Amino acid sequence: MRVFYGWWIVAACMLSALVGNAFGLFGAGVYLHEVVTVHGWTTGLVSGAVTVFYVVSALLLIPVGVGIKRFGPRPVVALGGIALAGGVVEIGQATAPWQAYLAFLFMGIGWAGLSTTAVTTTLAPWFDKHQGRAISIASLGASVGGIIGTPMLLFGIGRIGFASTTIVAGVLAVTLLVPLATFVLRNHPRNLGLFPDGLASEAATTDASNWTLPTAFRTPALRSLMVTFGIGMMVQIGFLTHQIRLLAQSPTIGGSR
Q1: Of 24, 65, 99, 233, which one is least surrounded by beta carbons within 10 A?
Q2: Could you tell me the pTM of the whole model?
Q3: Cα 150 to Cα 107: distance, rounded to the nearest angstrom
Q4: Which whole-number Å values give the CA distances from 170 to 27, 71, 103, 215, 219, in the listed order?
């Protein structure tokens, strides 16, 4: 039995989320600690650069969704991978605060192109009945990226140094994401003569196509979700960003370094 191509799209989205979160979202705390340690800059100064990363990525989420819908996921994911890689390499070479800010700016652009918004928008045309399952599976990449990203970066820094590790991470990101976007991702199942969920005929569509961005923003349900998730993410991101720095300063955990 032939596997529906949409599941290959799921696998591609899972890998892109893994790379984006490993070297972007969860890597930010590692970069902050190393930059502060190497250059002696204040944590507050570098935290400002990390804030640029999150603000830029947040502002780009809606344009990313619109871009994928209009142009398809290929250019968005490819450019996201290139921007993320450029930012990661740059942070390892930064010798002045403005260079660190520029690096996190590019990482913010890159992470937006590999975010949950990018994943869900890419998968939406491919699944109707199984959309929730597809998005859940693809989102596992973000969790795996969080699990392995920070240890990988810290291991590399301990062996070959900060600058070399960021170069390796940047090259790895480009090597994985650009071919993935070019050869695996597709805009819509109809481009391959297929229908959503791999059905033999066009499935009944929902009224989601009647929604517009202003209409969605006017719904109390969306606004309440945005506020709730915003508060939760603010706490989570604040902790993750400074976790490595706090652990390194611990006399029990980081005192031997």
Answers
A1: 233
A2: 0.85
A3: 16
A4: 12, 25, 12, 39, 40
